[in-house]
Amino acid sequence: MKHLALVFATLMSCTAMAQDIKMRQESEIKVEVSYRVDQLRDYPNQWRDSEWREEYTMMLEVGNNQAHSYVAEERKTVLSALTTYLQKNRWHLAVEPYALIGETFINGKTLEQIVDLDAAGVFRYTEDTPKLKWKITDEKKMVLDYECKRASCSFRGREFEAWFTEDIPLSYGPWKLGGLPGLILEVADTKNEYHFTATGIEKPKETKYIQLLDEPSIQPIKREKALRMEAMIHKDHGAFAADYGIKFSLEGLEHQAMPYYPIEVAP
After folding, report:
1. Is 52 among the domain residues?
2. Mean pLDDT in the chain?
3. Does any domain span residue 261?
4. Residue 224 sits in which domain range?
5. Dist CA 133 CA 122 (whole Å)
């Protein structure tokens, strides 16, 4: 509950920034969940080791047969990118782009994903909602005072282990991870490069709706191409940005290949 309050200011600034950006209203939010994401960071710098971690906040909004999850800090970055484009007809450069998690909207059989691809702009792709083949065990533990069961599955090159609670019978979780007979409260890949832990669950005190970015400047893309472009950013960030009219210098570091830990390793 406290963690939800900590991200309130960020979400309010996002709302203010989005006033001129077209949004699409979906179903009423019934439950909001905040997660702490602990990730092996893609972008090191000269003051840190090549392997260092960062934490950020992911929000999950659950409506009627719909779910919307997004990285709170990245949503602010995306809104800023769209605002810059609308004002100057040019994308800005995200100095620290997040992994290609983006915003995920699941509506029945369809999944819609919005991703920020740095200087190239903001993109949207759709795919069939993945059907994860979970293996549920009898192992249990407590997360946020809820009794949870353990489940595991393989998904696009990673092995995931999740803890879900049947006390909240919602088959959703952070990002694209769902399909269990209860809300996922904790999930990580077996390499622990991505670790999601629920920090708060609440029902909105007033009527709120899922709000999706519906700005025409968001470009359509195929998921596979989005992954390839993200890999190119890590291979040579400077050259990638220059291809889209943005030049910057980090004393040569902008052309060095950076560590890359995509959440989707395989197609």
Report:
1. yes
2. 86
3. no
4. 2-130+191-255
5. 31
Is residue 43 predicted with pLDDT exceeding 70? Answer: no
194-226 pLDDT tens trace: 999 999 999 999 999 999 999 998 999 999 999
- pLDDT above 60 (res 228): yes
Q: Is residue 195 part of a domain?
A: yes
Query: How far is C-alpha 121 from the geometric centre of its chain's CA atoms?
Result: 16
In a domain, 236, yes or no: yes
Number of separate domains in the chain: 1
Side-chain half-sphere CA neighbours of 55 within 13 A: 9
Q: What is the pLDDT of residue 70?
A: 94
DSSP letter string, 158-185: EEEEEEEETTS-----STT---SSSEEE
Instruction: Look up the pTM and report it.
Output: 0.87
